[in-house]
Write a structure and sequence with these properties.
Elements (H helix, E strand, L loop, with lengths): L6 E8 L7 H22 L4 E6 L2 H13 L11 E7 L2 H9 L1 H8 L11 E7 L3 E2 L2 E2 L13 H4 L11
Length: 161
């Protein structure tokens, strides 16, 4: 059995600049920002890159669902969560050091609030893909490496610039 490579996910949640409507923010993100960013991310080996848009209508829907389920969720109020899937943190570091990416980030200021940004980092364990159970052996045991291997980020560094 081969050892699976850990797929990392870093997600960064942002709010739109208060001067923009949800539609204006979405228009900027999809028509002006994403295509340029995608080319940069692909150039540096990022496995996947996408944005999760969460307009007020979606947040209201999840709040209603939360109430139905007993109200124990903290509902995320961010407008967008940018997701990066990568093999190692060196890929992310190379993106962050790319002059074209730095310039693209500078252009975000009128569109992204810059306040209350939330970031998460972890690894992905998939158990259903394309409607099929995956990554379980015939006995139903996950085929991922053990927690100690997956949770070891000590050998990976991200520049603190």
């Amino acid at each position: 059995m081969s050892v699976k490579q850990r797929l990392l996910r870093i997600a960064v949640s942002h709010n739109r600049h208060p001067s923009l409507s949800e539609e204006q923010f979405h228009q900027w993100a999809t028509k002006e920002h994403c295509a340029r960013a995608a080319r940069i991310h692909a150039r540096h080996g990022i496995e996947a890159y996408g944005m999760l848009f969460s307009p007020e209508t979606a947040r209201t829907t999840v709040k209603n669902l939360n109430r139905t389920l007993g109200g124990s969720w903290a509902v995320d109020e961010h407008d967008v969560t940018v997701e990066f899937y990568l093999h190692n943190l060196d890929e992310l570091t190379s993106v962050l050091e790319d002059p074209e990416f730095k310039a693209l980030q500078q252009e975000e200021e009128p569109y992204v609030s810059g306040k209350d940004i939330v970031a998460t980092l972890g690894w992905v364990e998939s158990y259903v893909q394309n409607g099929r159970v995956v990554n379980l052996n015939p006995g139903g045991v996950p085929t991922y490496p053990n927690f100690g291997v997956l949770a070891d980020f000590s050998s990976e560094q991200v520049n603190q610039k």
